[in-house]
């Protein structure tokens, strides 16, 4: 099956078609609904046929081992006029001619098993309940977004009126039927839970950001920070995995640069799809790169794609969106954070702390400061807001100062006072390859997240 096919019936109905095969038949396709004619002069003169479509093929494999199939199709291919050979539909052309010249091995599927939507197709000529008032007409079973007929970026719940009389109406029906499926939680379609190996974010970090560094529980406990005492008592190995479905870089104009490791800082955010106001505010304030993971159902993701196309804010070229499929039984905070971090292309990330971080001013400060790409982990502090400006100046804790802003470099020498400043920081800047958050920390307060990330860099 092509990936652009859409089932309108239970797939078990398709398996029943195998029972209709005669003893010699071992493959099946539905007729091609495009008016394209194939010309095979070398084989049987200047006759024409519309052929069959390879978007859905049934293959009775036990009846056709590779050697048998090779012995059938290769002589057919050898009869093509080689100097003038033209295969308008690649292997589909060969399979069509093989079926025509060897009708005893081929089973023709009903047209309702492959309603094609490319610009030259005529699915409305296929008798079905969508095109006829005949109560005995069969139901459409599979729609095929062939050629330029793909409608994957669209979402609509306006039910088309029957009968369908043109290709445009069939395309709207495709969008409607697909949208109905997207209203379901994707996990609901699983009849049993597959026990596959969980997705490990560490592999992505190692691939996209050189060799990563991943915190262990024993390393965290060495910090002796009181806020992390409960984590140390867990006495279990930290994990960085998820069983959530993730659609990384779903909207990314520069996706070809996905593995390009570049200097700079990316703002990383993990949000629910309902927090679009927060996202838009961040985009307006932060002019640099953004990597954002959005928790959403598939339907919500497609609605966002539609909004993205129409919004000059959301569609900015240096933003990457990654959808994490909603599942209330699985951890959220660490998965969203790790998704946004792992698929960032820069070597450092900025993690906002709290909802009131002034990203606009922080962006301006970082534009003025040229040492942020070389220094260690940085806590971005608004000293006046904290009421600690004099203390920061007295102990010379700021590597750089811009107005009320202080860039506090965290190192082993100032570990004792890090916790009190982390509780009031506006943001953290950290190496991307060291920025994964263990699942065990997911439900801890934000300050615990920040201290955990700092512990991994010191």
Automatic annotation (TrEMBL):
Its main location: membrane. It is found in: Membrane. InterPro entries: Nucleotide-diphossugar_trans (IPR029044), Xyl/GlcA_transferase (IPR051292). It comes from the Eukaryota. Keywords: Glycoprotein, Membrane, Signal-anchor, Transmembrane, Transmembrane helix. It is a single-pass type II membrane protein. One of its GO terms (cellular component) is membrane. GO terms for biological process: protein O-linked glycosylation via mannose. GO terms for molecular function: glucuronosyltransferase activity; xylosyltransferase activity. Transmembrane segments: none annotated. PANTHER family: GLYCOSYLTRANSFERASE-LIKE PROTEIN LARGE, GLYCOSYLTRANSFERASE-RELATED. This is Nucleotid_trans domain-containing protein. It comes from Mesocestoides corti.
């Amino acid at each position: 099956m092509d990936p652009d096919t859409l089932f309108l019936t239970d797939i078990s109905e398709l398996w029943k078609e195998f029972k209709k095969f005669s003893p010699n038949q071992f493959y099946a396709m539905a007729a091609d609904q495009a008016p394209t004619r194939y010309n095979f002069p070398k084989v049987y003169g200047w006759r024409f046929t519309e052929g069959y479509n390879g978007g859905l093929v049934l293959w009775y494999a036990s009846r056709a081992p590779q050697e048998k199939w090779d012995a059938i199709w290769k002589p057919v291919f050898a009869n093509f006029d080689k100097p003038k050979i033209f295969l308008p539909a690649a292997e589909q052309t060969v399979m069509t001619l093989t079926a025509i010249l060897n009708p005893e091995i081929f089973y023709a599927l009903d047209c309702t098993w492959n309603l094609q939507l490319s610009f030259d197709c005529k699915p409305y000529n296929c008798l079905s309940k969508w095109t006829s008032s005949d109560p005995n007409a069969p139901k459409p079973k599979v729609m095929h977004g062939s050629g330029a007929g793909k409608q994957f970026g669209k979402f609509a719940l306006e039910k088309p009126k029957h009968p369908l009389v043109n290709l445009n109406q069939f395309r709207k029906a495709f969008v409607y039927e697909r949208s109905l499926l997207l209203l379901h939680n994707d996990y609901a379609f699983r009849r049993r839970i597959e026990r596959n190996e969980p997705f490990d974010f560490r592999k992505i970090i190692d691939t996209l950001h050189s060799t990563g560094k991943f915190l262990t529980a024993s390393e965290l406990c060495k910090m002796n920070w009181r806020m992390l005492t409960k984590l140390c008592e867990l006495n279990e190995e930290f994990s960085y995995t998820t069983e959530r479905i993730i659609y990384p870089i779903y909207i990314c104009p520069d996706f070809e640069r996905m593995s390009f490791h570049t200097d700079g800082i990316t703002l990383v955010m993990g949000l629910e799809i309902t927090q679009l106001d927060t996202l838009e505010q961040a985009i307006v304030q932060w002019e640099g790169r953004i990597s954002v993971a959005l928790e959403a159902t598939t339907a919500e993701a497609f609605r966002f794609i539609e909004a993205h196309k129409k919004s000059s804010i959301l569609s900015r070229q240096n933003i990457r969106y990654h959808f994490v499929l909603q599942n209330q039984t699985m951890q959220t905070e660490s998965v969203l954070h790790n998704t946004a971090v792992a698929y960032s292309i820069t070597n450092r990330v900025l993690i906002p702390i709290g909802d009131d971080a002034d990203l606009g001013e922080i962006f301006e400060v970082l534009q003025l400061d040229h040492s942020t790409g070389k220094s260690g982990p940085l806590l971005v502090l608004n000293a006046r807001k904290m009421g600690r400006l004099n203390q920061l100046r007295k102990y010379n804790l700021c590597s750089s100062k811009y107005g009320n802003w202080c860039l506090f470099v965290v190192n082993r020498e100032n570990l004792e006072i890090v916790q009190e400043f982390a509780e009031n920081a506006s943001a953290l800047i950290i190496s991307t390859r060291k920025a994964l958050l263990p699942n065990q920390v997911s439900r801890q307060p934000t300050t615990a997240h920040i201290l955990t990330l700092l512990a991994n860099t010191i």
